[in-house]
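Issue: ligand-bound run for uridine-5'-diphosphate-xylopyranose - logging full I/O for the record.

Environment: standard queue, default settings, no custom constraints.

Inputs:
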Amino acid sequence: MRLSVIGCGYLGAVHAAAMASIGHDVVGIDVDATRIESLSRGEAPFFEPHLDDLLTAGLASGRLRFTTDMAEASGAAVHFLAVGTPQQSGGHAADLTFVDAAVDALVPHLSPGDIVAGKSTVPVGTAARLAAVVARAGASLVWNPEFLREGWAVKDTLEPDRLVVGVGPDGAGVDALREVYSLAVEAGTPFIVMEWPTAELVKVAANAFLATKISFINAMAEIAEVTGADVTQLADAIGYDERIGRRFLGAGIGFGGGCLPKDIRAFAARAEELGRGESIGFLREIDAINLRRRERAVELVVQGLGGSAFDKRVTLLGAAFKPFSDDIRDSPALDVAVRLRGLGAHVTVTDPAALANARRQYPQLTYVDDRDEALRDADCVVLVTEWDLYRRELTPEHTSSLTAGRVVVDGRNGWDAAAWRAAGWTYLGMGRP
Ligand code: UDX
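Outputs:
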């Protein structure tokens, strides 16, 4: 099928490349010329495992190309909207500027019968509004939310847990979407058809649930801290109950990234607009618990350093909001770094993928590419992003050979506390005695 993908960020670039890899003829369109040049060379403009391979193969096959010219969307049967919906500056609601601009730019190039498939995360009610706009060109709109995780985006796109297609009253677009995803559908992926508002809500409900799960265990960590309990053992024990499950019960400095934080805020803001603020008022609490854990990590550093971080050398292992990503949007790791610097610490940050982004956004911090160089002479070491390079490959003994002090704060509960203590370290975890 001929497809266009409008917006070539973490979501759209992967979608375009993945669709080409399963045989579709795809044009990816973005207003950012630098990003388009990079994609056209077969280079992902951000860190995403396996994406470069998919881009190279797609470009070589002739089935994948990238452009800044919206007119090239013309002729595609399905047009995917994959632009960002960031948090509004000065508010909690979603900023729909990019979605509206993309649709306005696309409409002149639509033909009757075309399908516009929204993938961006939007406030419930947006699809119905946009459907009226694309209808002027004789096109129909479906909402096809995307659940990909950064770092696993290629796999999540090609082998999703489920495909959700939200349709309008006439049901238009279902057949086209089933054809786009025929490989996954034939492989048994649930293909669930529903109406627009349900499809829009599925996405935010899923993210709200995941955020709630993380903040739940972090709330238990707060209780563990005043009772001498160990939240990691607690999570293991409750996680054996299949109704609960161990995944996303990792207590630590909490969630960040371009999705969970802004999506729960936008959802709460939308519920308030709809007169149902109280229904998901708990999401404000989820957000607050999450942010408190960053401050808790800072407190642990201060405690470990004997009451003050002033003039102390603190090395943070990690800058990305999670491993296998170079994304620093709302990164808990960098938030902790900035707070420590505010206390007068000499903060050094290292990360295998995210330093270029971090340098741009927080030029006030010191960055060192090499892990061991970053650790040299540190008074305190803080694990904030659980890359294997730190969590699995860094031993207490090796760290001891580099640092000045013997204090570690494990912001991701990723290390074996007993092993660090046995090597002479003061180990401070999140919700662990
Ligand atoms: C998330 C959803 O998982 C995905 O389905 C949706 O499409 C977009 O948002 P992503 O932002 O890539 O994906 O990251 P995810 O793997 O969900 O992690 C989110 C954050 O939660 C990270 O900062 C991670 O470190 C944190 N986290 C995750 C925890 O603190 N504890 C956990 O147990 C799991």
